[in-house]
Amino acid sequence: MKQRSPLAFFALFLFSFLANAQDYPQDEFISPLEMPLFLSGTFGELRTNHFHAGIDIKTGGREGQRVLAVADGFVSRIKVSPYGYGNALYIVHPNGYTSVYGHLQRFNDTIQAFIREEQKRQKSFEVELFPLAKVFPVKQGDLVALSGNSGGSGGPHLHFEIRDTRTEKIINPLLFGFDVKDGRSPDIYNLEVYEFDKEELVSSYTRSLLRQGDGVYSLTGNSLIEVSNPASFGITTTDRLDGVPNKNGVYSIRMIIGEEVYYHFVAETFAFAETRYINSHIDFAQKACCRRTINKMYLEPNNQFSAYRVKERMKLTDLVADSIYPVNIEVSDRAGNVSTLNFELKYSPPEVELAEAPEPDLPKFNYAQTNFFKKDNFQVVLPEGALYSDIYVQYEKKAACSECLSFIHEIATREVPVQKYYTLKIKPDAEYHGDKSKLFIASFKDGKLDDYEGGRWENGFVVARTRQFGEFAVMVDTVPPSVSPVNFRDGSNVHGASRLSFIISDKLSGIDDYSVTIDGEWVLFEYDAKNRLIYTDVRALNLEDGERVLRISVSDDKGNVTEKTYHLIF
Ligand SMILES: [Zn+2]
Question: Which stretches make up the M23ase beta-sheet core domain (predicted)?
Fold first, then answer.
């Protein structure tokens, strides 16, 4: 075997250490849009309960921009949903990558017709198809769809992803040579200082920063931070690109204390299954209480997110007492603009050994094992790995709400993140003689109804699965959804109307399903969930003129159904 020179070895080390565009093809993908790339979202950006999986490309505030296949390949998956990516298209390319296009308004005519057939066949607006390679081959630059605002999108844009076809891991699209202009270095807003006692967070506070010049930040006031416990830090930071005001995510964050790299995050690639580790990546309590998204620069023991580069070294600082250490925090964007924050850190342990704080008299949940909790009519089963670190569990029984069938049980708080679903069981305190299948668990925030958690009746308890802590109680949903036509009523002449629309909503358990027939035949109504709207394109129905009977049926998650009939003149 050929001997590697030390230099080659060093280069290899460097290559594996730095995320490196050279690992990815640079000129195989064209832009999915025929307009300059301005981004309102970047890969790895810190979002609610997830890291952003792609880039969000601005479409000039409008829907209907032509979306092109970025390379040759075939359509491998088509999904229509009122939630998430809305109308989404996946194209497999021969180079081993899959491109994904989300929040589309519609697909090209061929795919759209194919989807309409399938919706009719399944009698469902929501469909997901996995066509074989020969069904929809595409050439680079082919029109595959029009951009839109469908699904969980908050404004017209194209959500674009690149995935490794084999592993399905998502990769930062900006590693593939797309032309995105960015001449600005990232903004750093604040430094958070955390102090620990034996791995347990005991205090945190915020230091404000001064922008010294382009990309150079320092602490306001004293540039020496003194701590009396092992410490770590967090920062708030975003990146702005040329020509757009959006505060996007940064590409990498690295912290060096003394000579040691203590933290290194790079938004290169990760798997979907890991995305909820965002809630350990950030200071979740600060997000829950105060809407601050702080990027912590230490790891909780059960943070298994794979986008860290020096994981084994990402622990709490291990410093010699009374020495002063330089701290260097470096934040970069994908274009290579770098911002730095430098200050000094001194660890001064208390001179007199303090008496150990007594352990709180509370049950402790261990993140590495299954945990059980039982109190009166309230039970919790929390699986192994549902927590990021051990917690002491506060429990409190509070007064019931006026429509509650149980007391409000509070377990831990909304400020403690939960990675995995756990089981919650509550026995009603008030006798309920009605249909028990209508009972469910509701969560509350500061005593106010917040979320529907679902639930089924089992041995005298309502049992639900959830991924949050806080306040819970049993409620009942016997109220069917509300259904109101937007542009007609019973007896209307709708000849010449382009759309028929209904507003559908449901108070407690939420809309589960709906169906509309005209003269007994199922007809497609599209669902725009965020606007609580269902609608159909009248011309696409191809109805002959005359009087017809439209029936609509809408059900909620607890099986309450609203049915209405309209006689309409087409
Ligand atoms: Zn997006």
Answer: 51-109
